[in-house]
Amino acid sequence: MAFDLATLDAPFAALKAYDWGADAAPFKTIDDAVIAAHGDAALRVELEKRFAALLGAGTSRAAKEYVCRKLMMIGTAASVPALAAFLADKDNSHMARFALERISGPEAIEAIRKALGSVPVDLKIGMISSLAARGDAACVPMLAGLLAGDAKIAAAAAEALGTIHTSEALQALSAVDPLAGNGLGRAVVDARLACAEALISQGKRNDALAVYKALAATAAGKPEARSVELAATRGILACLDTLAAS
Amino acid sequence: MAQRPMKEQRARSRRGFLKATGAAAGAAFAAPYVITSKALGDATTPPASDRIVVGGIGIGNMGSGDQGAFLGRSDVQYVAVCDVREKWRTGGKDRADARNGNKDCAAYVDFRDLLARTDIDAVHIGTPDHWHSIMTIAACRAGKDVYLQKPETLTLREGPLMVAAARRYGRVVSGGSQRVLGDYRGIVDPCWAGEIGAIKSVDISVGGPSMPCYLAAQPTPPDIDWDLWLGPAPWEPYNSGRCDGNFGTGGNSWRSYIDYSGGSLTDWGAHHFGGTIFAADLREVQPTKVTYHPASADGKEAAYVSVTYPNGTEIFHNRPAQLRPAPSVAHQGSILIAGDGNPRASKPVPLYKNGEGSIYGDFIQCVKTRERPFRDIELAVNTMTGPHMIAIGYRLQRSLNWDRAAQQFTGDAEANRLLDRARREPWTI
Fold it and tell me: Is the complex ipTM higher than 0.90?
């Protein structure tokens, strides 16, 4: 049975005026509609249209947050422009990503990638983490370019490169000192270890071995890098065991 | 169970283990730097070099309980606490100081400061669930072993990342349900003894998933770092009902709300599912299917959800009583296990590694020996996939299929959106 769109009018009116602490009972109808939109393209289009309208001026941060939570579940490329408009907004950037990160298709990734180059420094880490969550290999050059800048952003970029773990990502990571301070070195180490694990899963054990050996050599004899040496040694042993067996 | 004789404990001391296993494994350990009046040990306390140096992160409620357990161990040197709430932080420091007979226990607001200490071997984490993965992974990277309160995960994506971090750095990471082995032997023993045959179905009665939070803004009190309490969760205004540390899920604690917890389903559920999955010997696997059973047309029976495991065992959450088969064994009416009645070969029940009746002792023993603990993080993650999938089944009101290798639902892109959620900057995993 088709969802009765008229039942949404009052709840959406309540949502437009909503702020934290107000009666949220009317939202139950919207929640039900979001679930019903699975397999009902027309309802989905209608909901997205109504949600996008609420992302405009005149709604509270609480209302925008609710909308982003729903678009996280059913948003499509149609919602991307309205969400992308908030990526540089300190108050709403995270919730815009909350939705965009989960919307499939290239439009959402492109919007986050574009924002990475322009949002304030404090918000860049969020863009980076969402690109990593999407496994966006196309952003590797952009992330590699961040490794030499602000340490916190560089560390986030390194983590993202480890999550993406392509050969290009490993190449970029290999150019950074794994013992660098301010958290960067630890992120680089973790990312290079993740890349080595990916190489092992691809059957490229000699390549992985080279990654582990390089890390072990860098950490050898340095008390502050004992956990790095241990992790690299564990990797070396795992590679050698398998190579010997084969 | 009898405690292992002190002589035997000494024989398996950390120092001896390091010597025996060489430099590679030895790199995992940091010798304790804190020298106390008992540094050289006595009749009841091992010397400092044989004690594990521990700190606690999230020290209220269950965190304080965990702290008490570690403070009660003679083989632990407890040196630091961390909490974003001043009352918990101060209370935790006072308890440690009283136990240590000094004022030396450090107190931190930010867990990163505690993890930066090179003298700490292990941490216990008792924060709300939305912090578990970030802190556990950070601790592994920092070379610490971890005792992590249940439920270990908040999302399905977090689990494999936590396991990867533990394995990558060779850390001992134990989940934290003390009840799995402690409370459920009544169902575990007959199942492992093969007495009830192949387990066909299990009915678990426990509360449901967490819910959205619409609480009003209140003035933020001065004794809490609210931004750090929220951490990776969406920003919301302070309200005591969001962050109070009690165990309720009726709307007056963080366990009620979806941004911070999976609700009773993953909280008490971690115990009930943990005991059940242990009894059914399903800790190594994950469900393959989630089945949503709609409410009856007359509204008399509420909707319920089940998960099916690779061997066909189906675990039902809150199935109506009249639909449940007669159980072969039961736990206090909340877990009903039905077998096929054809006796099978018995298997020895896995126990805590140190032979004590304590998951804390199991963890500390494994820190010393580098064995995997009773509730190793991988087993804990597997266990929690069931309740998390059930929650998603309720949320979407439909059935799903799970591909363990891909860690994704099959053919349902919308369900896969719920595998994880974007974290608020600057927090990442």
Answer: yes
